[in-house]
Amino acid sequence: MAELRRRETLTTRLVTLLTDRIADGTYPRGEKLPSEQEMIDEFGVSRTVVREAIATLKAGGLVSTHQGIGAFVLQAETVPPFRIEETQLDVVREVLSVLELRIGFEAEAAALAAQRRQPEHLAAMRAALDQMQAAISEGEDAVEADLAFHRAIAEATENKHFLNFFNYLGALLIPRTRLQTFRCQDQSRIAYLARVNGEHEAIYAAIERQDGDSARAAMRVHLAGSRERLRLSLRESSALPA
Description:
Blueprint: H1 10-23, H2 36-43, H3 47-59, E1 63-66, E2 70-73, H4 92-116, H5 119-137, H6 143-156, H7 160-184, H8 189-208, H9 212-236
Antiparallel strand pairs: 1-2
């Protein structure tokens, strides 16, 4: 088993290792990645860590996933136009700072999406919301559905730069903020996810009726709420000063 560096989070280490193996051809382009269980056995990490790593690679354009089959390395290599060092996201203040960046970026994306959305965009958003609700009911983490919903909004702007920017920021922040919040939340995991999905529904409703101002406001409420929930939970656990 490869030696993983101690200072990085388990997910970040696994993402780095898998990315390196894709880059050096250990996992050839177009080929299937090892199964979840094979990665669990080889790297000694949990299923959640493996799934979060695959979700990050997928959002970054390195792999695609097929239900019931597994993850495959994409044929074409993509280079993200914007980068923030993943190791910085282990620092709470960096997580919160970059989440503030998302508030401004995704609020405007939601407003543009409301103006420009097409039926296929709404269908993608609806499918992601339904997947998230199903995951909540089954006790799963719903990270991929969460990413899919926010990505569908970026796509609905019909501006490729919004989508490229989201593919980097969303992949990093949604899983990490979600998992850190779970560790600190007093309310149950299911209740937390249900609340998040309710906020998503408000965003979807505004985009569906083409109300740009309401879509912008609903997205701001959602992401600012995530920021404040994380800030409060970490403060209560003495991880962040008042």
